[in-house]
Amino acid sequence: MNLMAETTIEADPTVPVIRLTRDFAATPEQLFRAHTDPRLFAQWVGPNSLTTRIDQWDARTGGSFRFVSSRDGEEHAFHGCFHEIRPDRIVQTFTYEGDPDGVALETLRFEDLGDGRTRLHAQSLVDSFEGRDAWLRSGMEVGVNEGYAKLQELITRDAA
Amino acid sequence: MNLMAETTIEADPTVPVIRLTRDFAATPEQLFRAHTDPRLFAQWVGPNSLTTRIDQWDARTGGSFRFVSSRDGEEHAFHGCFHEIRPDRIVQTFTYEGDPDGVALETLRFEDLGDGRTRLHAQSLVDSFEGRDAWLRSGMEVGVNEGYAKLQELITRDAA
């Protein structure tokens, strides 16, 4: 198994959606925990060049979150609400505060592949192709791939 | 001014969005309150044939809601989280529990037209045209028009 596999990033041709798919050497429970435990989440989210602190976190259906990622004193904040938290599925909203009126509806699914492997399906829906494509052109794949590599390392290390 | 004006219901041709537009004889503050005060909201939401009770309500950024509409003992429940609550804009998620995996991202804007008139812009975004069009074919315009007529009556009565 290639633990450093790249994430598949797909732009839907018909709706303003981005879909990420990545396989992890992890159980669904481990992936769920990495997305809902703020101490774990802060350790892996985003590119290697950023450090993240959790400002507010209540990972339950109807809860909300805010976190701040920083590099050399420059801060980027993100917030949203958790529409649904269940073991195999998380639905949440997501706003980058540098674009305060922008908002994505995100759905994460943890597909059990057996043998301690899980496929993460992450979908982001926005209300325009312009907004979706600007995000794709922003270099988001660096943060996605570096973040998911950290997530995998975190799970591998904790299990060791 | 025609207080019983129908709501304009527009299906976007390029993204799976429904947009509702309706003018009210109300200030933005009155429309905001009718959408955030649970006692008021329960009095106007939905078609005339349904009675609504609020199960849970916390209308602030990062809060959530659940309400139950009933007719002859048959209950329909809805829930979501409030991504953003501000005087001119509400962003929230919305799920009908009869279709528990379905979720819409809704944005409401209150455009001040002056002279005590406000234009409501309501947008619902889902992740497929099939889902969007099934909703349009469901007869939703009855609930929309009857609900907004009740909202207008409520504001007119309270101001009298």
Automatic annotation (TrEMBL), chains A, B:
InterPro entries: ASHA1/2-like_C (IPR013538), START-like_dom_sf (IPR023393). SUPFAM superfamilies: Bet v1-like. Residues 26-155 form the Activator of Hsp90 ATPase homologue 1/2-like C-terminal domain. It holds the Pfam family AHSA1. It comes from the Bacteria. Gene3D superfamilies: 3.30.530.20. Belongs to the AHA1 family. This is SRPBCC family protein.
